[in-house]
Amino acid sequence: MKTIRLTMSQALVKAMMAQKIRLDDGSVQLFFAGMWAIFGHGNVAGLGEALYEVKDQFPTFRGQNEQGMAHTAIAFAKGKRRRQVMACTASIGPGSLNMITAAGVAHANRLPILLLPSDVFATRLPDPVLQQLEDFGDGTVSVNDSFKPVSRYFDRITRPEQIIPAFQRAMTVLTDPAECGPVTLSLCQDVQTMAWDFPATFFEEKIHYIRRPHPDPNELETAKEILLKAKKPLIIIGGGVAYSGAEKLVEDFCNKYGIPAGETNAGKSAVPDQSPLNMGGIGVSGTAAANALANEADVILAIGSRLQDFTTGSWAVFTNPNLKIIGLNIQPFDGTKHNSYPLIGDAKAILELLSQQITNYKTDQSWTEKAKNLKANWYKIADKYMAIPSTTAEKLPSDAQVIGAVMRSIPDNSIVVCAAGGLPGELQKLWRAKQSGGYHMEYGFSCMGYEVAGGIGAKMAEPDRNVVVMVGDGSYLMLNSEIVSSIMLGVKITIVLLDNRGYGCINRLQQACGGKQFNNMLVDTHHKELPNIDFVQHARGLGAISKKVSSVQELQDALIKSGQNDRTTVIVIDTEAVSITEECGYWWDVAVPEISKQKTVNEAYKTYLNYKKTQRLWN
After folding, report:
1. DSSP string, 361-420
2. pLDDT average, residue stretch 342-360
3. Predicted confidence (pLDDT) per residue in 150-208, tens digit
4. How far apart are CA 290 and CA 91, in angstroms?
5. Each residue of 272-291: pLDDT tens digit?
6. What is the DSSP pairing of strand 545-549 with strand 324-329?
7. 3-state secondary structure of 325
8. What is the mean pLDDT of residues 522-543?
9. For the chain, what are the domain ranges?
10. 527-565 core/surface letters (b: 16 or more CB in 10 A; e: else)
């Protein structure tokens, strides 16, 4: 057998470069688009040297923060519909631990990323090394064990030849539509530099494809029978619709059979907003139209959704006692939730078969017309909230008014990126994506700090589209350093920074639960002097073009002009922290204290108990 003598790091990189994937159109592309790396003593001499040798064939990108660079890689995979991924490497100890939050993001959102944290010496001869933590009762433990609960697959490489089965298993997980998620290969720093005679077959071109499992005939028959009896069916569009490439098929399915649809945050924009039976967001931050239909629906066809509490209104939005749920999902874990009737397999393949099975079915015209009327009424309400405020208005603009300004001012092909705080709630209700894939929300983990880094990943995945990041001041302060990466890489994004001087979303939630304002808005925190943050100067200092606007109209003008800028632009606008879009949304189960010295909390607890009675029980 022919062998090639390489270090473990050289072998890993060479094997990564040999991985390719066949797309739906038959074309073949590289599976790994590159490596994000922040070097330290744990990886600079091992993996760093291996990457240097191929720097002209396999790009290495330098991040500013390990969590940020991993967020970028995750957003890239989302933008590529899981058909192409990136890897991330960090040094031993704190550098690697910084990636764990991002691993949680990838795990919750079912997104592929290869994480290569550096680990302690396998030989243990120099122990304890710099940045190593020691377990008093287990000599095999390192901080990288923390990756285990947030990885779909975890392996620690303590011998160079172990990389062969470990990498093969990693590729299986990264390309599996059901098991897809973060893979962690923890690389002992001395093993990174050890040489071994690797079989040449390990480096041969390998073309992968995303399989499309067909459903069990019994499950398909059951789903058909349920749908044929449905009087008030409703589809939930989850993120799996886009990953399957079933966007157009879902839209046609809705229109053909007259079935309205609500969107999860992950599924939003798979079907363009202007599609007549797309009711917009559903659940806690859903539209009035989608939630009104959810209240009455007798059958829910959940496509590619993990049925998160925000989607289901904490399982209180579905009030029909005779409701049946069909869980169309590639992953049985998700397709069987809440006693759903499972329909396990690829969304595109199943919808094609299901459509053949119910050819003569048509939803009652009154249900379809009701949906269209509800959507028209909702548009009128939403337009009111997003309208340009009066020039005589004394208070600062609301999130909704800023969203309206952004939506009116950017090209149709734009992608809006967001993740946490009050903005996701308003965006799911209000944003109207004109093209498929125009809404990129990380709300599986709702990770503050994802936004800027995620915007870079979205732009790298679809460089021909305009990317606008919407972020609050709190989230911006947590992780803004990747602005530097966007400048370095020439990846231009536009950042709209809404400054409400604190954590306005949680402040509202605190009061909704009966509490007093405390430790969320800057003015309510323990302080000797309130900060006066100059976000414009800060962004400019990181290399961005920056500007502060004083009105919604100025924001619109600045957004239009930003299209002519040659690099990342940050536009800052002061907003008020109280107003949200009323006449929509739904209850969210956030536990309220059973006993409190505050009368308002005790009253909120009584209200909470009343809502709890509306939840669907596990059955």
Report:
1. ----HHHHHHHHHHHHHHHHHHHHHHSPPPTT--SPPPHHHHHHHHHHHS-TT-EEEE-S
2. 97
3. 999 999 999 999 999 999 999 999 999 999 999 999 999 999 999 999 999 999 999 99
4. 47
5. 999 999 999 999 999 999 99
6. unpaired
7. strand
8. 95
9. 3-208, 217-377, 387-574
10. eeeeeeeebbebbeebebbbbbbebbeebbebbeebeee
Residue holding tokens 């009711």? 279
Residue 618 pLDDT grade (very low, low, confident, very high; cuts 50, 70, 90) = low
What are the structure tokens assigned to 617, written together? 């029980």
Helix axes 423-430, 365-386, angle to 10 degrees: 130
pLDDT at 470 over 80: yes
Same fold, 3-208 and 217-377: yes
What CATH number is given for 217-377 in this structure?
Answer: 3.40.50.1220
Model confidence at 390, pLDDT cuts 50, 70, 90, reads: confident
Summarize the confidence of residues 232-260 as an average pLDDT.
Answer: 98
For the chain, how far is it from start to end, CA to CA, in angstroms? 57
Dig out the tokens for 532 from the structure.
Answer: 């006066």
Which residues are paired to 302 by β-bridges?
A: 236, 327
Q: Find all residues with CB under 8 Å of 166, minimum gap 6, and list them.
A: 155, 157, 185
Residue 619 has pLDDT above 70, yes or no: no
- Which tokens belong to 239? 């993120």
Beta bridge partners of 472: 498
CA 391, CA 372: separation in Å to the nearest integer? 34
Can you give the pLDDT at residue 394?
77
How confident is the prediction for the chain on average, in pLDDT?
97
Give the number of other Cβ atoms within 10 Å of residue 106's Cβ: 30
pTM score, whole prediction = 0.97
User: Can you tell me which residue has the tokens 């590289």?
Assistant: 30
User: Looking at domain 3-208, what is its CATH homologous superfamily?
Assistant: Thiamin diphosphate (ThDP)-binding fold, Pyr/PP domains (3.40.50.970)
Report the CATH number of the 387-574 domain: 3.40.50.970
